[in-house]
Write a structure and sequence with these properties.
The complex is a heterotrimer of chains A (about 675), B (about 550) and C (about 190). Chain A has about 675 residues and is α+β, with helices and mostly antiparallel strands. Chain A is built from 22 helices and 20 strands. The radius of gyration of chain A is 33 Å and the shape is elongated. The relative contact order of chain A is 0.11. Chain B has one domain. The chains are: A alpha+beta (about 675), B mainly alpha (about 550), C mainly alpha (about 190).
C-alpha cells in the first residue's frame, strides 16, 4: 500500500501569509467580526478609543502620544486575531484547493437507463442526485455516486494518493465511486448521489473555511464561558470609575479601554477559530474527510473502538502457513501445484505461497514459456495456471473450486477446510484438472506494531473491541495475540448494531469503521462512524467521516486530532486567564498611582511609568496572539497518557507559563518603550 | 501569632473533619428518604398542607415552590414587623418598624442573609424575634439545604425528569435535622449562660449606684439556629460578641463548629449520594484549604498589632474572653460560611485582616458556604473547573459521569455573573449618589471597604458587616435588599436548572481518559479557579480599599 | 405559581407554629427548669438587690474598683443597646481616643508599670465586655491597693483567684471578671 502521508505545508507559507494579511483587513467587516464576540467587543472598544483619541487630537492634542499608541494597538489586537483566522483558513484552503482540483471540469455523459443508451453531454456541475452517467476507460467520474451497472478499475490516486487502481462494481460492497477519480478500464454506469455543492469535497472545503464553519458543541460552550468572563470584566471596568471616584482619581477612558481589552480573553478569543480550522485541516492532511466538526470533536471522547479484524488488526492479506495434502497426494505435489499456480499471483497471499513452497521443497523456477497464467477475476473468484498439455491448476475458495468441478467435495476435503477455518485460518483449495489436491492453510498475521497501538489506546482510556466473523475460539486466540480488550465473534450486522447500542446504553461513546452496505446501520448508530472510501455509498452516507485511504487504524489518528482540538482550546483558555494576573499588576497601580502613591508597592515589575505600564500591557496582549498562532495551527502536543498526567503537564506549561510569561513580556516591552522614548 | 492560636485552628479543623461523615451520613439517609422516625408527625404535616410527598417535581416546579414559599415568608415577616405594636409578646413595647427597614429585614431573613440594619434589643419584640426571625432562620436554612439536596439528586440520578419535592425536602430538613439539633443545642447554650426567658429585661443597680437595664429574651433558641443555619442575625445588636449570646470561650468554639458542621457535612452527603465519598472529601478539601489559609492569614495579619500605635495589640472591637486568635478564627469561619454572625467588630480589624473576611465573601460564599448554598455554589465552580480541565485533557468535560455542555456552562456563568454585577454595580451607584455617600462613615479607603463589604455581604447572603456603614436609610435598605434577592434566588434558580439538566443526562462510566475529580490535582485546580475568578473580579476594588489602607497605615498615614 | 400557593401558605403556617412558637416556648420551659439562673441572665444579687449580671460588664470609675474596658455604647455599658466603636485602626479618631485613654489611665495610675495593656485602652466589640485581661488587672493593682489601703501582694492573690483557667489548660485567653472581682473586693475589704 502506498500511503500518501500528510503533505507537509510549511507553517507559514509565503503566499498564504500574503493572502492572510489582506484577509485580516477584509475581516474588519462587522458582519464578519460579529461571529466572534470577543473580537467584536475588541473592535467596538477600538472604535471608541479611536473616536476619543481623534477628539483629543482636535482639541489640541496635548499628551495624545500614549492614547494614540494604545488605540493603534487595540486595532492591532483585532487585526492579529483576524490574521490568525486568515492564516488557518489559507492553509485549509490550500488543502481544499488541492482537493478541488480533482473535481471534474469535464462534461458528464448523462444516460437515461441502466443500459447506458443515448448519452447526452452535460456539464458535471449540473448533475443532480439520481442522475445516471456512463463512464468508460479514460473518463473522469463526474460526481460521487454508486455503480449501478458494470465493473471497472478506477484510479483514485487523485484523492487518496493510492497509485494502484481499485475495482469498482455494481451490487457489492465496492460500489461507491468518488467524483474526480478516473476509470482506467471497462465501463460503468453510475448513479449520482450528491447534489452539486453537497459532495464530500464540498463539505470538507466548507469545514476549513472559517465563514461557513459551524461551531462545535464544545466550542459553543467555551464561547459562552468566554463571553461570561468578558461580561464580568465589563462590569469590573465599567464600575471602576465610580469606585475610584472616592479617591478623586479620574481615569482616562482610553486607559479603561486598554484595561478591559487586556483582561478579556482575547488570546483564546482571537485564536479559537484558527484552532478549529487547523484541526479540520489536520484531518484532511490525514486524508480523512469529516462531515462535521462535531464528529471530530466526538472522536476525542471515544470510549470504545470497534475494529474489524481483517485489515485492521491482522494484515488484510494472509500468509501461507502449511500445505495440507489430501490422501493420495504428497505434500510436495501439493506444494508444487500451489507454487506453479501462484507464480504470477502478485497478491501477498500468492507471494507467501511461493515463498513457503520454495522454502520447504527448494523448488526451481519452471520454464515460463509453457505456462499460461489465469488471473483472479471477480467472476471466477480463483486464479491458477494452464500447463502445457492441457493440464490446469486452480486455487480458490472451497466453494468456488467445487462450483468449477461440479463435483461434491469429498468428506476429507470438507473436514480439512473446516479445521483450518476453525483455527482462525483461511483454507485455499488447490485442484489439478478438477481433482482437489489439498488445502493451503492461510494464516492471519497480526499487523506489526498493532499491540503497541492498542496499548496506546488503553492509555488514552479507549477500549478496543475486535469484530470478526470467526468463531469464538479463533477470535479469542487472535484477540489475545493482538492485545485487544474484547472481541465480538461470529459477528453479524445485527450483532454489531446491538453491541454498539449496548455500549451506548452504558453511556459510552462508540467509534467504528466499516465499508460494507451491511455496516451502514452500525455506522449510523455509532457516535463516530468512519466509512472506508472503498466502501459502498450507503456506508459512506451512514458514517460521519470518510477515510480516503481506507485505513481502519486511522481512527487512532482521528481520536488524537479530536483530543488535540479540545486541548488546544483548553490550554489557550488557561493561558489567557492566567495572563490577567500580570496585566492587573501592570495596570492597576498605574491607574491609581496619582491618587494613592502607596500603590507603587503593587508595581512589582517596576515598570517605568503609569503610561508605559499600560502601553506595555496592551502591546503584550496584542503580540501574544501572533506569538501563539503557530501553536494554534499545530495544536497542543498530545502524547497518549492518563488524563491526570496530561492535565498536570498542561497546567504546568500553560497555567504556570501563562502566569509567568506576561510578567517577563510586559517588563521587556516596558524596557523597550522606555528606551525608545515612546511613553 | 502564638502556639495556642495555631493549636486552636488545628483543633477546629480536626473536630470538623471528625463530624463531617457523621452528619453527612445522617443527611444522606435523610434526603434519600431512608429515615422516618418522625413519620407520624411528618405525614400529618403533609396531610394538613395538602402535599403529596410521593409526587416529585421537575426543576421548574421545585423553583416555583421555593419562590412562592419565600415570597410569602417575607411578606408575613414584613407584616409582623409593621404591626408589632398591636401584637402580643412585645413586653418592651417596641413600635412598628419603619417600612424600608421592615422591607430590608424581611428580605434579609428570607434570603438567609440576616443583614441587620437595626439593633435587635432596641427594635424588635419577642414575637417578631420568635415567630418572625427564628422561623425564617429555620426556613431559609432549610431551603438552602433543600436546594443542595435537589442538586445532589440531579448529579446522582440518570435520565431522570424530577429532582425531588421542595416541600418534602424543606419539611424533612426542619423536622429531622434543624429542630433536633437546635433543641439540644439551645440547652447547651443556656447551660453556658445564654438567657432564655420571655422577660424583656432585668434592671440592676451597679456597684457604683448606676441603673443598668439589661436586655433579655428568648436568646438561646434563636442564637443556636442563627449559627447552625448560617443565618447570622443576632438577637442583640452586638451579635455574637454580646456576652449573652456568646458568654464563654468554649461556647464560642462550639458556635464555630455549629456554623461549619452542616455545610461540611453536606459535602459528605453529596459524596455518599453520588456513590463515591471521595468526591465529597475532595470538595471539602478544596473548601478546607481556603478556610485554613484564610484563618492563618487573618490571624497573622491581625496579630501584627496596630502600626499607628507602635504595634499595640489590636483589641479594639474584640472581647477579652476570645482574644485575637479566637476572634480572627470566628471571623474567618463566619464569613467563609454565609453565617455572618460576628464575635468581633470587623470594621476595627487591621486592613489586611479585615480583607480576609471580605475576600471570603467575595469568593462567592463557597468556602464551606451557607448551609446548602455553599455546596451548590461550589458545584458551580466545579463545573467551570471540570470544563477547563476537561478541555485540557482533550475530552468533552464531564463531572460524575455527566457531560458538561453548553447549557450547564451557560447556567453556571449566569450564577457566577449575578453576584459581581450586584456588588460592583450597586456599590458603584452608592458611591456616586448622595444618598449612598451619606451612609459612609469612615473617611478614605476604609469607607470604600465598608461599602464594598456591605454589598458583598448582602449579595452573597452573608449578613455580617463592617458596621461603620449606616445602612438604615431608605437608599441602603432598598439597594441592599435588591442585592440579597439577586444573590439568593438568581443563583439558586440557575443551579436548580443545572440540577434538572444533569439529572436528565445519562451517566458516562469513567475511563483512563476521564479526569478524576477526587484527586489533589483537582482540589488544587478548583481552589485555583475559585481564587482566580474572585481575584480577577475584585482585584481593583480590593486595591482601592483594604490594600491601599494597609499600605497607608504601614507608612503611618491616618484617615 | 397559583397552585403552589396553597401548600406554600399552609406549610408556612405550620412551620411558624412549630419553629416560631412551639420550639422557643419548649426551649424556654426546659431552660427555666434545668438552668434557671442562666436562663434569666446570670443575675447577681447582693443584699437582695440585683447588682448586675455576671456576664455583663459595668462601668467603674472609682479608684478603689478595678476598671472595666472602655465601652463604645452610650452611655458606657448600656446593656440595652450593645455595640462597638466600629472605628478603623487607620482612623484618626481611634488613634486619638486610644492615646487620650492611655494618658488618662497613666494619670490615674502613676505607679503602674509601663503603658496600659491594649484591652484597657481599646473598646470591646459589645461594649459590655465583663472581663479584662490579667495584665490589665495587674496594671491596676497598685491603684486599687492604694485606694483600699491593702498590700498589693494580698490583692494580687485575690486577682489570681478570680482569673479563669484556660480551656483544657491550654486554649483560650485567661480573663478576670471585673464585676465579680470588685464584689469580692467589697466583701473582703468593705469601703466605709
Amino acid at each position: 500500500m502506498s500511503v500518501h502521508r500528510p503533505q507537509s505545508l510549511s507553517l507559514f507559507d509565503r503566499a498564504i501569509l500574503g493572502q492572510a494579511t489582506r484577509d485580516a483587513i477584509r475581516k474588519l467587516d462587522p458582519r464578519s467580526l460579529v461571529r466572534n464576540p470577543i473580537i467584536f467587543a475588541t473592535a467596538l472598544v477600538s472604535v471608541l478609543a479611536t473616536v476619543l483619541t481623534v477628539r483629543q487630537g482636535l482639541a489640541g492634542g496635548h499628551g495624545i502620544g500614549v492614547p494614540a499608541q494604545i488605540t493603534v494597538w487595540l486595532w492591532f489586537t483585532v487585526l492579529f486575531a483576524n490574521f490568525a483566522e486568515a492564516v488557518a483558513e489559507g492553509r485549509g484552503k490550500a488543502q481544499a484547493d488541492s482537493l478541488r482540483r480533482t473535481k471534474s471540469e469535464a462534461a458528464a455523459r448523462k444516460v437515461s437507463g441502466m443500459d447506458g443508451a443515448d448519452p447526452t453531454q452535460i456539464p458535471a456541475a449540473m448533475l443532480k442526485a439520481g442522475d445516471l452517467v456512463i463512464c468508460e476507460t479514460g473518463d473522469i467520474v463526474p460526481g460521487d455516486g454508486d455503480v449501478v451497472a458494470g465493473i471497472a478499475t478506477v484510479d483514485e490516486s487523485a484523492i487518496t494518493g493510492e497509485s494502484a487502481p481499485v475495482i469498482r462494481e455494481s451490487g457489492g460492497d465496492r460500489s461507491a465511486v468518488t467524483g474526480g477519480t478516473r476509470v482506467v478500464s471497462d465501463r460503468i454506469v453510475v448513479r449520482i448521489t450528491a447534489n452539486p455543492g453537497e459532495t464530500f469535497l464540498d463539505r470538507m472545503i466548507a469545514l476549513v473555511e472559517g465563514a461557513k464553519r459551524q461551531k462545535t458543541p464544545n466550542e459553543i460552550a467555551l464561547s459562552i464561558l468566554l463571553v461570561g468572563m468578558t461580561l464580568i470584566f465589563l462590569i469590573v471596568v465599567a464600575t471602576l470609575p465610580a469606585w475610584a471616584s472616592r479617591s478623586g482619581a479620574r481615569i482616562p477612558v482610553v486607559f479603561l479601554a486598554a484595561l478591559f481589552i487586556t483582561l478579556i480573553p482575547t488570546t483564546i478569543g482571537g485564536l479559537m477559530s484558527a484552532i478549529g480550522i487547523a484541526g479540520m485541516d489536520r484531518l484532511v492532511r490525514f486524508n480523512v474527510i469529516a462531515k462535521s466538526g462535531r464528529a471530530v470533536e466526538a472522536a476525542g471522547d471515544i470510549d470504545v473502538l470497534l475494529l474489524d479484524k481483517t485489515g485492521t488488526i491482522t494484515l488484510g492479506a494472509r500468509q501461507a502457513a502449511e500445505f495440507l495434502p489430501l490422501a493420495g497426494t504428497s505434500e510436495r505435489d501439493l506444494a508444487e501445484a500451489a507454487f506453479l499456480s501462484s507464480l504470477a499471483d502478485e497478491t501477498p497471499e500468492g507471494k507467501s505461497i511461493v515463498a513457503l513452497a520454495r522454502n520447504r521443497f527448494r523448488l526451481a523456477d519452471p520454464d515460463h514459456a509453457e505456462l499460461r497464467f489465469v488471473p483472479f477475476t471477480a467472476q471466477t473468484r480463483m486464479s491458477g495456471v494452464d500447463l502445457g498439455g492441457g493440464h490446469q491448476i486452480r486455487k480458490g475458495a472451497a466453494d468456488a473450486i467445487a462450483a468449477r468441478t461440479d463435483a461434491h467435495p469429498g468428506r476429507d476435503l470438507t473436514g480439512m477446510v473446516e479445521r483450518v477455518a476453525k483455527s482462525g485460518g483461511t483454507p485455499l483449495v488447490v485442484a489439478r484438472d478438477d481433482r482437489p489436491l489439498g488445502v493451503i492453510h492461510l494464516k492471519d498475521i497480526i499487523k506489526p506494531g498493532i499491540r503497541e497501538r492498542f496499548a496506546t489506546l488503553r492509555a488514552m482510556g479507549i477500549r478496543t473491541v475486535m469484530i470478526t466473523g470467526d468463531n469464538p475460539l479463533t477470535a479469542a486466540a487472535i484477540a489475545a495475540e493482538a492485545g485487544v480488550d474484547d472481541y465480538l465473534a461470529e459477528a453479524t450486522p445485527e450483532k454489531k448494531l446491538e453491541l454498539i447500542r449496548e455500549y451506548q446504553q452504558g453511556g459510552r461513546l462508540v467509534a467504528m469503521c466499516g465499508d460494507g452496505s451491511n455496516d451502514a446501520p452500525a455506522l449510523a448508530q455509532a457516535d463516530v462512524g468512519v466509512a472506508m472510501n472503498t466502501g459502498t455509498q450507503a456506508a459512506r452516507e451512514a458514517g460521519n467521516m470518510v477515510d480516503l485511504e481506507s485505513d481502519p487504524t486511522k481512527l487512532i489518528e482521528i481520536v488524537m486530532i479530536g483530543k488535540q482540538l479540545l486541548m488546544s482550546r483548553g490550554a489557550l483558555t488557561t493561558f489567557s486567564i492566567a495572563n490577567d494576573v500580570a496585566k492587573y499588576f501592570a495596570i492597576i497601580p498605574a491607574l491609581f498611582l496619582a491618587s494613592y502613591p502607596q500603590l507603587q508597592a503593587l508595581n512589582i515589575m517596576h515598570l517605568t511609568s503609569p503610561r508605559s505600564a499600560i502601553l506595555s500591557a496592551i502591546i503584550f496582549n496584542a503580540l501574544v496572539i501572533v506569538a501563539l498562532i503557530p501553536l494554534a495551527l499545530k495544536g497542543v502536543e498530545y502524547k497518549p497518557a492518563a488524563a491526570e498526567v496530561l492535565l498536570k503537564r498542561n497546567l504546568l506549561v500553560y497555567g504556570l507559563g501563562g502566569l509567568v510569561v506576561p510578567f517577563l513580556g510586559i517588563k521587556l516591552i516596558d524596557m523597550a518603550i522606555t528606551a525608545l522614548g515612546l511613553a | 501569632m502564638n502556639a495556642r492560636g495555631i493549636l486552636l485552628i488545628i483543633l477546629f479543623v480536626a473536630v470538623i473533619v471528625a463530624l463531617t461523615p457523621v452528619l453527612g451520613g445522617y443527611m444522606a439517609r435523610l434526603y434519600e428518604g431512608r429515615m422516618n422516625w418522625l413519620g407520624p408527625v411528618e405525614r400529618r404535616i403533609y396531610r394538613l398542607c395538602g402535599i403529596d410527598p410521593a409526587r416529585e417535581q421537575h426543576w421548574t416546579g421545585y423553583a416555583m415552590a421555593l419562590l412562592a414559599f419565600h415570597m410569602l415568608g417575607a411578606l408575613v415577616l414584613y407584616g409582623l414587623m409593621r404591626l408589632q405594636a398591636h401584637l402580643p409578646f412585645n413586653p418592651a413595647h417596641h413600635v412598628a418598624v419603619a417600612p424600608a427597614l421592615a422591607f430590608n429585614t424581611a428580605i434579609s431573613f428570607a434570603t438567609n442573609t440576616d443583614w441587620q440594619n437595626y439593633g435587635g434589643e432596641s427594635t424588635l419584640g419577642n414575637l417578631v424575634q420568635m415567630a418572625g426571625l427564628t422561623v425564617q432562620n429555620f426556613l431559609s436554612a432549610a431551603t438552602g439545604i433543600a436546594v443542595a439536596a435537589a442538586v445532589i439528586r440531579g448529579f446522582s440520578r440518570r435520565s431522570a425528569r424530577t429532582i425531588g419535592n421542595f416541600y418534602v425536602d424543606l419539611t424533612r430538613s426542619v423536622l429531622y435535622l434543624l429542630l433536633p439539633l437546635c433543641l439540644a443545642g439551645a440547652l447547651v447554650l443556656v447551660w453556658q449562660g445564654v438567657p432564655q426567658t420571655l422577660a424583656a429585661s432585668a434592671t440592676a443597680t451597679t456597684l457604683e449606684g448606676a441603673r443598668q437595664v439589661i436586655a433579655l429574651g428568648p436568646v438561646a433558641s434563636q442564637t443556636i439556629i442563627e449559627h447552625l443555619g448560617t443565618n447570622g442575625g443576632g438577637f442583640f445588636n452586638a451579635n455574637a460578641a454580646h456576652p449573652f449570646e456568646n458568654p464563654t470561650w468554649l461556647l464560642n468554639f462550639l458556635y464555630m463548629v455549629a456554623i461549619v458542621a452542616i455545610g461540611a457535612g453536606l459535602t459528605n452527603t453529596f459524596g455518599r449520594m453520588v456513590g463515591d465519598t471521595r468526591q465529597g472529601w475532595a470538595l471539602l478539601a478544596a473548601m478546607g484549604v481556603l478556610l485554613v489559609a484564610g484563618a492563618f492569614a487573618c490571624y497573622w495579619a491581625e496579630a501584627q498589632g496596630n502600626p499607628a500605635l507602635h504595634g499595640l495589640a489590636n483589641m479594639e472591637g474584640k472581647e477579652a474572653r476570645f482574644g485575637i486568635a479566637a476572634s480572627t478564627l470566628f471571623s474567618t469561619v463566619t464569613t467563609a460560611t454565609s453565617c455572618g454572625s460576628v464575635n468581633a467588630m470587623l470594621d476595627s480589624f487591621l486592613p489586611l485582616a479585615g480583607m480576609v473576611p471580605l475576600v471570603n465573601i467575595l469568593l462567592g460564599e463557597v468556602v464551606i458556604g451557607g448551609v446548602g448554598s455553599g455546596l451548590y455554589g461550589m458545584l458551580v465552580f466545579v463545573l467551570i473547573t471540570v470544563f477547563i480541565a476537561g478541555l485540557m485533557v482533550g475530552r468533552t468535560p464531564e463531572y460524575l459521569g455527566k457531560k458538561i455542555e453548553a447549557r450547564e456552562i451557560k447556567l453556571a456563568v449566569i450564577a457566577i455573573l449575578v453576584v459581581p454585577a450586584a456588588v460592583l454595580g450597586l456599590g458603584a451607584v452608592a458611591i456616586v449618589t448622595g444618598a449612598g455617600q451619606a451612609g459612609i462613615a469612615a473617611p478614605g479607603p476604609h469607607g470604600l471597604t465598608e461599602l464594598l463589604y456591605a454589598f458583598a455581604s448582602a449579595a452573597n447572603n452573608n449578613g455580617s458587616a463592617f458596621a461603620g456603614l449606616n445602612g438604615n436609610t431608605p437608599f441602603y435598605n432598598v439597594t441592599l435588599a435588591v442585592a440579597m434577592v439577586f444573590g439568593r434566588f438568581f443563583t439558586a434558580i440557575p443551579v436548580l436548572a443545572i440540577a434538572g439538566s444533569v439529572a436528565a443526562k445519562k451517566m458516562v462510566p469513567p475511563s483512563a481518559g476521564t479526569f478524576p475529580t477526587h484527586s489533589w490535582l483537582f482540589v488544587v485546580l478548583l481552589v485555583g479557579i475559585v481564587l482566580v475568578v474572585g481575584g480577577l473580579t475584585y482585584f481593583p476594588v480590593l486595591a482601592l480599599g483594604p490594600v491601599v489602607e494597609h499600605l497607608a497605615l504601614s507608612a503611618g498615614t491616618l484617615f | 405559581m397559583l397552585k403552589e400557593l396553597r401548600p406554600a401558605l399552609s406549610l408556612l403556617a405550620v412551620m411558624t407554629v412549630l419553629t416560631g412558637l412551639a420550639y422557643p416556648l419548649a426551649v424556654t420551659g426546659l431552660a427555666q427548669a434545668l438552668f434557671p439562673r442562666q436562663a434569666d441572665g446570670s443575675l447577681i444579687e447582693r443584699g437582695g438587690h440585683v447588682v448586675g449580671s455576671a456576664l455583663i460588664g459595668q462601668s467603674f470609675t472609682r479608684p478603689q474598683y478595678f476598671w472595666s474596658r472602655p465601652s463604645a455604647t452610650t452611655p458606657p455599658y448600656n446593656a440595652a443597646a450593645s455595640g462597638g466603636s466600629n472605628l478603623a485602626p487607620s482612623a484618626k479618631a481611634l488613634v486619638n481616643a486610644v492615646k487620650s485613654r492611655e494618658k488618662m489611665l497613666m494619670a490615674a495610675d502613676p505607679d503602674a508599670e509601663g503603658p496600659p495593656p491594649a484591652d484597657l485602652v481599646m473598646s470591646s466589640a459589645s461594649g459590655l465586655d465583663p472581663d479584662i485581661s490579667p495584665a490589665a488587672a495587674e496594671w491596676q493593682v497598685a491603684r486599687v491597693a492604694a485606694a483600699r489601703r491593702i498590700p498589693p501582694r494580698t490583692l494580687r492573690r485575690l486577682v489570681a483567684a478570680h482569673t479563669t483557667g484556660r480551656f483544657l489548660g491550654v486554649l483560650g485567653p485567661r480573663v478576670v471578671n471585673v464585676l465579680k472581682l470588685n464584689l469580692a473586693l467589697d466583701a473582703r475589704w468593705p469601703m466605709r
